[in-house]
């Protein structure tokens, strides 16, 4: 007997892929989102935009608007400032963490590759210890694995 397929929610997948999926759509209680299929409480950018618009255009108090959209007042002011400064793209979630491998530069990666060429059986924990001893860099073994994978990918 063939397995029945559940229809795939493409919008949900797209929101998740873009990191725009609202982690708490149940917190959106504004009547606008209950009354229309156009408004989607799962869409974080749309929710933030409507939260700011309700206060600015419709005159809803900031605290009321923020709580109706599942946010705090500081989150409202942050969204408002970003919207004014950057436009709609300012409401997109920003990527967290370091933007690049800031500790493992070319010197460190060269050292690691040299160590591996001499002893291919070295693990990332031992490489981290050698890096700490030789270059005085404290690096997590997983960061070493990622840096070596990036270097290998660039080499190809």
Task: Write structural notes for this entry.
The protein is mainly α. It folds into two domains: 11-91, no CATH class; 106-155. 56% of the residues lie in helices and 0% in strands. It has helices spanning 10-17, 31-35, 44-56, 62-68, 73-86, 106-118, 124-135, 141-155. The radius of gyration is 24 Å and the shape is elongated. It starts with 9 loop residues before the first helix and ends with a helix. The model has no long low-confidence stretch (mean pLDDT 90).
Task: List its traits.
56% helix, single chain, elongated, mainly alpha, 8 helices, 156 residues
In short:
The chain has helices at 10-17, 31-35, 44-56, 62-68, 73-86, 106-118, 124-135, 141-155. The chain is an all-alpha fold and 156 residues long. α3 (44-56) packs across α5 and α7 (124-135) crosses α8.
**Structural class computed from helices and strand pairing:** mainly alpha
Q: Assign an overall shape.
A: elongated
Please give the largest β-sheet. none
Overall average residue pLDDT: 90
Which percent range describes the beta-strand content? under 5%
| Count of individual domains | 2
Total of helices: 8
Computed CA radius of gyration, to the nearest angstrom: 24 Å
| Helical proportion, percent range | 55-70%
Low-confidence stretches: none
Order of helices and strands: HHHHHHHH
The beta-strand count equals 0
């Amino acid at each position: 007997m063939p397995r029945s397929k559940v229809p795939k929610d493409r919008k949900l997948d797209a929101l998740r892929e873009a990191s725009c999926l609202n982690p708490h759509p149940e917190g959106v209680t504004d009547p606008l989102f209950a009354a229309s299929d156009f408004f989607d409480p799962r869409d974080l950018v749309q929710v933030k935009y409507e939260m700011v618009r309700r206060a600015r255009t419709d005159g809803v108090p900031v605290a009321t608007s923020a709580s109706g959209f599942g946010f705090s007042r500081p989150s409202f002011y942050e969204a408002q400032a970003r919207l004014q400064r950057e436009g709609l793209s300012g409401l997109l979630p920003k990527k967290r963490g370091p933007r690049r491998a800031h500790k493992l530069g070319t010197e460190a990666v060269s050292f690691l590759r040299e160590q591996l060429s001499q002893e291919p059986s070295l693990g990332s924990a031992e490489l981290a210890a050698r890096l700490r001893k030789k270059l005085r860099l404290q690096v997590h073994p997983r960061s070493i694995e990622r840096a070596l994978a990036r270097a290998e990918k660039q080499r190809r």
